[in-house]
Amino acid sequence: MEKAARMRKRGQINVVLKKQPEQDALLSHQSNVLEKPEHHAFKKIQRELDEFIGLKNIKDFMKEIYAWLYLNQRREEAGLKAGKQVLHMVFRGNPGTGKTTVARLIAKMFREMGVLEKGHLIEAERADLVGEYIGHTAQKTRELVQKAIGGILFVDEAYSLARGGEKDFGKEAIDTLVKSMEDQQHSFVLILAGYPKEMDRFLKLNPGLPSRFPMKVTFPNYTVNELLQMAKKMVKERDYQLDEKGEETLKNLLSHAKEEQEDNFSNGRFIRNLLERAIRAQAVRLLEEDNYGKTELMTLKSVDFKKAAFK
Ligand SMILES: Nc1ncnc2c1ncn2[C@@H]1O[C@H](COP(=O)(O)OP(=O)(O)OP(=O)(O)O)[C@@H](O)[C@H]1O
Ligand SMILES: [Mg+2]
Bridge-partner residues for 7, per DSSP? Predict the structure, then answer.
């Protein structure tokens, strides 16, 4: 028998020991609702997100913005006030935690929902925005915004714009971005991304910014187990496999690198690079062994990862 719910009534606590059928119905109703054709945009994104390891808070966040946008459409249809939708966001996360990938998915979802016309992603960093002489920066930034119209402008390491202080042209880029956000409010979405601590400091130093970015999303570092799961998935996708010792070595390498590199540890990117080096190490090993059996061709061993780690 399961303890399905606790109910508090006039100070009493009622422990309900049986799973209630209504509750079951409610849960299955909830999951079925999203199967309706009108929710195809969300389903499509959800299927892609499901491929990702971890990222529970991001998955919830995506559902929340979908629900909010959808409800606002319905409210408008019903002649009710629809809240002003400011969709600019801040992404806080260490390298390789999935920021760019998720931004791309959001762009896609917004296009499917008719929020953005094109749904493309323009990735930019300081050098793409900041010019070399007076007036150049505003022009460069405006051109980039122009390219992003109908989609998302994703500015990585956004704080680098504030790097040089008052006299630096980076400040002009920020001002131009803010102005474009206001002038073309509904035609593009701006995402500022970067390391958590630096992003927080940047937003604090620019008091006009936080209120313009109502959505703040944190991308946590992956645990060793999540990283291992991710690695296994990538191995499988590439038609390879790990033998027992290979997996053990990989796990050790991951926890060691994560500890040693701390905030610089590049999460998903680290795995991808390590795997590619291990695959090349395996190729050399098999060539030298003159060994091309199907199992051999597929198997990444401990030595391959050890070699990969020291490159
Ligand atoms: N949860 C995950 N599951 C599977 N693969 C992931 C996950 N997170 C990241 N990756 C993979 O890791 C790599 C890096 O991800 P992405 O480029 O989105 O991260 P990022 O946060 O933008 O990194 P950077 O700060 O280095 O630009 C990609 O190849 C991506 O597919
Ligand atoms: Mg990125």
Answer: 14
Segment among 18-22, 41-45, 68-72 with least mean pLDDT = 18-22
pTM of the complete model: 0.82
Distance CA 212, CA 207 (A): 10
Residues 6+ apart with CB under 8 A from 83: 68, 72
For residue 30, the model assigns a pLDDT of 55
Using pLDDT thresholds of 50, 70 and 90, give the confidence band for residue 22.
low
89, 97, 233, best to mutate for ligand 1 pocket (most atoms within 8 Å of CB): 97
The contacts of residue 293 (CB under 8 Å, 6+ apart) are none
Q: Shortest CA distance to 17 belongs to which of 36, 3, 35?
A: 3
Give yes or no for residue 223 CB within 6 A of ligand 1.
no
Pocket flag, ligand 1, residue 53 (CB < 6 Å): yes
266-296 pLDDT, tens digit per residue, is: 999 999 999 999 999 999 999 999 999 999 9
Mean pLDDT of 77-99: 90
Report helix, strand or coil for 219. Answer: strand
Q: What separation in Å is there between the alpha carbon of 95 and the centre of ligand 1?
A: 8
CA distance 27 to 30: 5
CA distance 221 to 240: 26
Walk me through the domains of the chain, giving residue ranges and CATH numbers. 1-33 (no CATH), 40-219 (3.40.50.300), 224-309 (1.10.8.60)
Q: Tell me which of 101, 125, 155, 237 to substitute to probe ligand 1's pocket, judged by most ligand atoms within 8 Å of the beta carbon.
A: 101
